[in-house]
Every structure is written in C-alpha cells, then in structure tokens.
Amino acid sequence: MTIELKNVDQLRKAIEAISSFISEGNFRFSENGISFKAIDPSQIVYVIFDMDKKVFEKYSIEPTFVGVDLVEMSKILSRALPNDKLVLDLTDSEMLLRLEGSIRRSFSLPLIDVSDDEVNIPKTSFDASIDIKSKILREALKDASLFGSSVVLRVKDNQLIIEARGSSGTLKSVAKQTKYVSVESKSEVVSKYSLNFLQSIVREADPDKKILLELKSDAPMKVSYKIGASPIEFHLAHMIL
Fold this sequence. Notes:
Elements: E1 2-5, H1 8-19, E2 24-30, E3 33-39, E4 45-52, E5 58-60, E6 64-69, H2 70-77, E7 85-90, E8 94-100, E9 104-110, E10 128-133, H3 134-144, E11 150-156, E12 159-166, E13 169-175, E14 181-185, E15 189-194, H4 195-202, E16 210-215, E17 221-227, E18 230-236
Antiparallel strand pairs: 1-5, 1-7, 2-3, 2-6, 3-4, 4-18, 7-8, 8-9, 10-14, 10-16, 11-12, 11-15, 12-13, 16-17, 17-18
Helix pairs in contact: 1-2, 3-4
C-alpha cells in the first residue's frame, strides 16, 4: 500500500487550509483517490476536499478509512523542500510519511479514532455567484479587517460590494464586472460572515486563480476553488445582520 506524490505543495496547502478549522479528521482512501469531509467544532465551516488518484505518480492502496491529527500532518508537510517527493504508507496503527529528496526523512503519525457522524448540509439554491481573482478578494478582506471582525457581502446591479464597520471606521469596496470579476445574480443578495473565518478559507488559494463564491441572503455561503488540480469547497455559516 503506497502513494507517491511529487507535488507535495498541493497536499500541503489543502491540509493547511483544513487544519485552520479542524484539528483532526478522517481520510477516505478509495479506488478513485483521497477524500475528506468534516465540520469544525463550532459548526461554522464544513469542508469537502477531493484528490483524484491521477494527481499521484503512484497510487496503490486498499480502500480504507483513517483518522489523523491534521495539525501534526500539516507540520510534517510544511517541512517538504521544493524538490521532495512524498511517499505515504498506512499500517494498522500509523500513517507513515517519507519526504525523499537530497535527504530522506521519515515521519509517522498514529491513527486515531475520530467521530464520523454524517453532517447533512441542506441543499441551497443560491441567488448569486461571483467568480473573482483570489488576490483581489484577499486584498478586499484585508481592507475590511482594518475596521471589523465581520464582513457584509452584497450583490447588487451585477456588482459585489464588500462592507465592514467598526468603532474606528467603515469600509465599502465595490467589485464591478471585469476580466477578473464575474457576477451573476437572480436578485439582490445581502449576507454577513465572520471575517477571520473567510480569510482563513481563501488563504491557500492561488493568488492568480479565481475563487467561486455562491450566495443567498441570510444563508451559508459556498466558497470553492482548486489547489493544483484538486477541488476544495467550504460552506461558511452566516451571521445575523
């Protein structure tokens, strides 16, 4: 049972993004690849991540389901050098990770029991979708963080409006239709979210690629993008306006 991955950065970024919210979780290894689904302890963010077996140089593993400490896994993957290859094996009690490059480094993580209660995410018919360059969104959220810990997203007249308010001031950013921003909406939308959570969600997105935001007034938001070739999506609970 062996998995080999030359582009360790893809997996590192995904685990980094997930571990911002979820400290431990279950990976499912199937004949199609690796998948991960979990909700954070505060039940604010639900994460879905898939990594197709085609991404790997070698993928030979029996279908299985294992729980690991994501924070520790993230620390290990962060030690990968640019030309390292990741070799991953599983035993009955451990996940074995080797980083092979100029030197070979071997790490092991004990497998843990993690509750796998099925989380039912209600199907939402979104009223607006925004395809926006990651760098633009991240800069707008940095602006918002000058004044508040929450952010209001509005979609009006095919524009995305980002607002933040605090005792020291207010922010209003307007993103109009350009080659970097595409807005589609059935109706006007307004909803409020945790700024810290949203910034953590988009942190690992490629700054030159686009992020898809799907919105409905006073409803959870779906945020999705790709890390390399692998899709990751987050469902972020809304706050009361």
